[in-house]
Amino acid sequence: MDEKRIYVGNIPYDYDDNKLKDLFAEYGEVTEVRVIIDKASGRSKGFGFVAMQDKEMADKAVKELNGKEIDGRAIVVNIARPMTPR
């Protein structure tokens, strides 16, 4: 499991990769960002993933951002679990 990869849920629908990266950049170097987009509508699904440079940065970001209110939405932030086959 990659302990530097973070799941971010309940993000505002107008958030794109850049806005999400800016949110996490305060906690350390962001190496990858991906807001998940609905293929049919082209709009955000309201969640995404962020990868940080190291585990300590990821842990700090999770601790400080989980439950934080952004644009009236309390975001959910935790270490990402591996994808399971459907």
Order of helices and strands: EHEEHEEE
CATH fold group: Alpha-Beta Plaits
Distance between the termini: 19 Å
The computed structural class is: alpha+beta
Q: What portion of residues belong to β-strands?
A: 25-35%
Account of the protein in words:
The protein is of the alpha+beta class. The protein has a single domain, classed as RRM (RNA recognition motif) domain (Alpha-Beta Plaits), CATH 3.30.70. Helix content is 23%, strand content 35%. It is built from 2 helices and 6 strands. The strands form 2 sheets. Strands 2-3-1-6 form a 4-stranded antiparallel sheet, with helices on one face. The chain is globular and about 35 Å long.
Question: What is the strand and helix layout of this fold?
Answer:
Elements: E1 5-9, H1 17-25, E2 30-37, E3 44-52, H2 55-65, E4 69-70, E5 73-74, E6 76-79
Antiparallel strand pairs: 1-3, 1-6, 2-3, 4-5
